[in-house]
């Protein structure tokens, strides 16, 4: 068991991350925690799409869900990076949640992007 885990590379680990349904749900939770109070309408458009992506993944559309998660995670990262944050605010709970969500966005873009690019659509392959 440990031998197979050691042979698994970084790219395969990222692809496996991108094929799970938990990362978009976790990111939606972090975004909601940041922007629900006070309510900010633009960032709050992201959690429903990410939760729908998790639903797609559980419905068997892993490749499409990975593409949706990668795209919307990247869009949220661009939106969040536009906001400036003072140095003292980085060491608060809110700053930690913001940093965690941006880190999760980066991992989602990499992992879900790999899962989307190298993924196969099983339902389309069966028709041929």
From TrEMBL:
Transmembrane in keyword set: yes
Source organism superkingdom: Eukaryota
Keyword set, alphabetical order: Membrane, Transmembrane, Transmembrane helix
Keyword Membrane in annotation: yes
Bilayer-crossing regions: 100-119
Protein name: Altered inheritance of mitochondria protein 19
Classification of source organism: Eukaryota, Fungi, Dikarya, Ascomycota, Pezizomycotina
């Amino acid at each position: 068991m440990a031998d197979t885990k050691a042979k698994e590379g970084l790219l395969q680990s990222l692809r496996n991350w991108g094929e799970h349904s938990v990362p978009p749900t976790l990111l939606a939770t972090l975004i909601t925690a940041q922007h629900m109070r006070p309510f900010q309408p633009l960032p709050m458009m992201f959690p429903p799409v990410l939760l729908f992506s998790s639903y797609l993944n559980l419905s068997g559309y892993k490749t499409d869900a990975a593409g949706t998660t990668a795209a919307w995670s990247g869009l949220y990262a661009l939106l969040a990076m536009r906001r400036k944050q003072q140095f003292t605010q980085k060491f608060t709970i809110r700053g930690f949640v913001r940093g965690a969500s941006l880190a999760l966005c980066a991992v989602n873009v990499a992992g879900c992007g790999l899962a989307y690019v190298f993924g196969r659509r099983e339902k389309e392959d069966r028709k041929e």
